[in-house]
Specification:
Elements: E1 3-4, H1 6-20, H2 24-39, H3 50-58, E2 69-73, E3 77-85, H4 87-105, E4 107-115, H5 123-130, E5 133-140, E6 163-167, E7 175-179, H6 186-194, E8 204-205, E9 211-212, H7 215-219, E10 225-226, H8 232-247, E11 263-271, H9 278-293, H10 309-321, E12 323-324, H11 327-339
Parallel strand pairs: 3-4
Antiparallel strand pairs: 1-12, 2-3, 4-11, 5-6, 5-11, 6-7, 8-9, 8-10
Length: 347
């Protein structure tokens, strides 16, 4: 399996998107976002997405050069149309609006529709954390992209509908939760399929509603479904996320007949120093982290990790050792690159 540095992957990815018709700035923004996902260990939202994104460009499902348009706003919120631009471009622009509003009045909220796939959701709350703010984000797939069976059902009715929360820390990496409300992300199933590996038990069902570990059974035909995490709990969170992301923005919730896959989302940014003393807040965060980590461990655990810690360690390790891309994923990327006349390094 080929190994690349982050810079090598960014260059390859940017060149492919430019050759496919993306504008200079947006090609770089999307490339940076995909590679950051690989750096953090979330390969499901990394360069594996290149063939999919270029296919959407070819089908004119991504509008290159598009930027956000604010349809309605007050001091504390904005309703935003993304013009079906690259999700990574639209989401970053929208989060900047929310961060600016939070800086001015303490809280900034954006509700966004007409946005293509935004990639790793955690990237956007992290923007707020890097600005010293907290953020919460709820995402659906514009009514299409249905992958998840409801609790007790066997047919796809919901998307993975992720939720992300970021909390800044003084002098360290932010706390970050970035989870799909399905028990596994579809991109991880795709990665396992590419590596010819089984899906861990308890994550997918086949078209008959039977538990399976074969990734092929999820994709079909006929297709199976992802399961909600934690049974009824993940199902409830996924359904409510669908409403907060889709109904408020006007994009709509999961429904029959909606097939175009995009993202709509609700993001809430909180300026911590508008609510309380920042030093006192930071001290309480660190006290909580220390208290949680002080718990006696059960068998099989050498330490307790808090949200975002694993990704921070993985990013440091991949900076040292490079990013490994599985053979099938690289074959697909190389095929796209060669089709667009991009000189590809040998895998």
């Amino acid at each position: 399996m080929p190994t690349f540095t982050s810079d090598q992957l960014r260059q390859i990815t940017c060149e492919i998107f430019l050759a496919a018709g993306a504008k200079g700035d947006e090609a770089q923004i999307v490339a940076d976002a995909l590679v950051r996902s690989n750096e953090a260990g979330h390969d499901s939202h990394g360069v594996l997405r290149i063939p999919e994104y270029t296919r959407w460009m070819e089908q004119e499902l991504i509008v290159t050069g598009a930027h956000i348009r604010i349809r309605k706003e007050t001091e504390v919120f904005a309703l935003i149309d993304g013009g079906w631009g690259f999700g990574q471009v639209v989401a970053r622009e929208a989060m900047k609006v929310a961060i600016d509003k939070a800086s001015n009045v303490g809280v900034g909220t954006v509700s966004v529709s007409q946005c293509c796939h935004i990639g790793r959701v955690g990237d956007y709350p992290l923007m707020a954390a890097e600005a010293g703010m907290a953020a919460v984000m709820f995402v659906n797939t514009h009514g299409g992209g249905k992958l998840v069976a409801p609790w007790g059902g066997r047919e796809r009715r919901l998307a993975a509908n992720p939720v992300s929360v970021a909390i800044p820390r003084a002098g360290s990496w932010p706390l970050l939760m970035d989870i799909s409300t399905s028990s596994i992300a579809e991109g991880k199933v795709r990665g396992l399929l590419n590596r010819n590996m089984p899906v861990p038990p308890g994550h997918i069902i086949d078209s008959n509603g039977k538990a399976t570990t074969r990734a092929e059974d999820f994709y079909g035909p006929p297709p199976g479904a992802l399961l909600p995490f934690g049974g009824h709990k993940g199902f409830a969170l996924g359904m409510l996320t669908d409403i907060l992301a889709g109904a408020l923005s006007g994009a709509g919730c999961s429904r029959a007949g909606a097939e175009r896959v995009g993202n709509s989302f609700l993001a809430i940014v909180i300026a911590i120093n508008a609510f309380c003393d920042r030093a006192a807040f930071d001290a309480q965060v660190e006290e909580l982290i220390a208290y949680v980590k002080s718990s006696e461990r059960i068998s099989g655990f050498s330490e307790i990790l808090v949200p975002g810690e694993l990704e921070a360690r993985e990013a440091a390790a991949r900076a040292r050792n490079g990013i490994v891309i599985d053979d099938e994923t690289w074959r697909q990327i190389a095929e796209v690159g060669k089709r667009y006349g991009v000189t590809m390094p040998e895998g």
